[in-house]
Amino acid sequence: LDARNLSLLVNGFSKWPDQPGCGDGTFAVAGEVLRRAETEGFSKFNPQNLTNLVNGFSKWPKQAECRDATSAIGTEVTYLAGRANRLSDFEPQGLANLVNGFSKWPSQAKCRKATSAIGTEVTRLAGRAKRLSDFSPQGLSNLVNGFGKYPEEQDLRQAVADIAAEIVGRAGKLNRFPHQELANLVNGFGKWPEEFDMRHATVAIAGEIVARAKELGGFTDQHLANLANGFSKWPEQTREATVSIAGEVVTRAGELNRFGYQELANLVNGFSKWPDQQKTSEATIAIAGEVVARAGKLKEFANQELANLVNGFSKWPEQASTREAMIAIASEVSRAANRLRGFPGQELAYLINGFSKWPQEPGMRQAAVAVAGEIASRADKIKGFTHQQLAILVNGFSKWPQEERNRQATAAIGGEVLRRADHPNVGLSDFAPLSLANLVNGFSKWPQEPGMRQAAVAMAGEIASRVGKIEGFSHQHLAVLVNGFSKWPQEERNRQATVAIGEEVLRRADRPDVGLSDFTAQGLAILVNGFGKWTQEPVC
């Protein structure tokens, strides 16, 4: 069989990927393609042949023969890209199909290099007058979805930005895009939420979703989940579109048992960005009921999905359904505490933040203790956690100060804060006001611990160094900080920091339009109690 016939066989077999015979035939061809790649190369394969093979092999992503043959083709594509830009021989749809196929094996270095080469080609085409206009909606969505597997690659980020600009240019024609392509584009653009081009394109698609609000019944469950998850990256501009999606989920409330685990998690994660909207609330409550119904199968949720559910449900702590769903998830975390080894810092922070919304629930306490045990076991590895993650963890553990593991975990974080405080030229200057407040408040729950005291003193030094710059701290931040520092009134830095905060309170008191009226009664009481520890200070 020549190259063309091999590719036609795979193309045909791929139309029935669930048929064992078609799979066996494809695996045989993959073995032959790999043999030729190693003996005679791909000189007899034209661009269409290569595209058909990759597109076909991608229907069996778990098969080693298909993976290895596709990797070999990836090497050929990279080689062609380096030979006087031979990728220009590929049709736009062919390039898109290659990226879509390579994306099934994102961990394969050869597939990644080939995808990167195609990204460079897409940017080159974008630089030539309207050449991306040759790509179909499906082609553009396949490119974005494939490039999105490598969000850290600079050349792929640029290629996606070019595609986003193309989408904005077609904003008046988005009604021609099928549902699936819109959902895939939003899902892909969401990998780069800080990029202006991605935001602009997603907002344009959100407008199209609002225009199709009465047609959302035609979107699959996965489409809805991808849209909600993607829109959540830009909540200020996509509220109306997400509320429409939530309304559709509410109409499907009786059919949530058919939704996949990832889809449920993505929907909750998306809706949680708008907790004050009635439809997003109703949709989340319905999903919470489905999670409770699956209480015995929660191990089927991936780690990130469980964390996203917890983070989302925690935005509605007063709802009985979300509380019941959280109790079920907390039970799963306690039952399978070994799972926590696979959770990165962000997901552990989501868990403890969510559980802490219901501190009176025994199940939440037990799950939080399990998370604390995991943090304590990673004491030498938490240097990879962000400032915000450390602060969220401490704030959560502090809800149960009587728990020994919570104390151990918080002590480990205190040690990490001290290590960062000693960093030359940086210290704690990168910590946001909320993180500083949460850390001080958490450490103050164990005032007898030397490590907690030292960490709080280090943060007091940071606050004192920001004299004249703490106007960015909210009223609540100031009250929490004073309350924390007051647990160690003998510390000089704590006195200095409290005096600095006192000066800021006086400055706000002198504002003729507001004064201190924005402080809550509790906040005022906490401030007075804290300042009372340094009555010798005129400012206090």
Major sheet description: none
Computed over alpha carbons, the radius of gyration is 28 Å
Specify the oligomeric state.
single chain
Principal-axes geometry comes out as elongated
Class derived from helix and strand content: mainly alpha
Explain this structure to me?
The protein is elongated, with a radius of gyration of 28 Å. 64% of the residues lie in helices and 0% in strands. It has helices at residues 3-13, 20-39, 47-57, 64-82, 92-102, 109-126, 137-147, 154-169, 179-189, 196-211, 221-231, 239-251, 261-271, 278-293, 303-313, 320-335, 345-355, 362-377, 387-397, 404-421, 433-443, 450-465, 475-485, 492-509, 521-531. Helix 21 packs antiparallel against helix 22 (450-465). It is an all-alpha fold and 540 residues long. The protein has 25 helices and no strands.
Question: Which terms summarize this structure?
Answer:
540 residues, elongated, 64% helix
Short description:
This protein is an all-alpha fold and 540 residues long. The protein contains 25 helices and no strands.
Helices and strands in order, then pairings?
Blueprint: H1 3-13, H2 20-39, H3 47-57, H4 64-82, H5 92-102, H6 109-126, H7 137-147, H8 154-169, H9 179-189, H10 196-211, H11 221-231, H12 239-251, H13 261-271, H14 278-293, H15 303-313, H16 320-335, H17 345-355, H18 362-377, H19 387-397, H20 404-421, H21 433-443, H22 450-465, H23 475-485, H24 492-509, H25 521-531
InterPro entries: FAST_kinase (IPR050870)
